[in-house]
Amino acid sequence: MIAGGTVAGISVECNCVTTGNLDRGLAILELLAANAGGLPMHEIADQLNIPRSATHRLLMELIRHGYVRQQKEYGEYTLTLRLCSLGLSQLSGMGVIDISQPILDQLAQISGEVARLSVIDGDQLVWVAKAQGASSGLRFDPDMGGVVDLISTASGHAWLSSLSEEAAIELISRQGGFVRRDDYGPNVPQTVQDLLKMLHEARVRGFAMVSEAVHLGIAAVAAPVRHPQSGRVIGVISVAGPHVRLTDQRLEQLGPAVVAATNDLAATCAGSPFLKRAIAQTSRQTEVTAAPTSQKRRVKT
Fold first, then answer.
1. pTM for the full model?
2. List of domains in the chain
């Protein structure tokens, strides 16, 4: 209990359990972000298992603070652009966009596909910037700001390949382990051995390649961004697109260009407060999350 005030722009009454209302409010924002077309109040309540009366009160508060709007009376609820504005302001202040965008733009032009940057934030990898290189035909145009799915993406594999096997498996476990999602493609790793084999291949090549794992028909190549002095990984740059264009041969061809882009970003990372913070975080990690090759353990599937 607290005596009142505001949390993230949402008023907190003195007689409420703050963590419950805050958790519910954030859950509503995340659900609406995943449903851009909007949702009716009863569906929000049912999906989040919140009483409809409480859901209505929270939606009214979110509307009052400008984070949610109702399309029409008794219509669906959608997010406003306020959260987008906050996110873009944050990235701009961190220096991520100014530093990374020209590098991503060039890589997108070279590849003709979407180039993306993800940055390590604690024990997660988060999408923070992108550039679209496909001007016509099939386009892979993913949303930004989400957490990278480590087990199925080239970006996830690029980061995991820089870690010890123990640390990589631990991170996968925190994201749900080897439980298969309905939208995964056919080539997502099914077992620990499958994953470790793919990570070993990524280490040998210097970049990760994944085809039709995160989604059917999507392929990607990615490489870690390493601090030029310490060698620690602070983020990942990737190129992704339709598998009909990004064949395995094409992914191999683009690998060196992706690695070159990571080197360019690493050389300029001192200009970004956020990337400097990522460097500080990785420097505090224990040896188990460094990139050893000597420590291995036998893991059961």
1. 0.65
2. 5-80 (1.10.10.10), 86-289 (3.30.450.40)
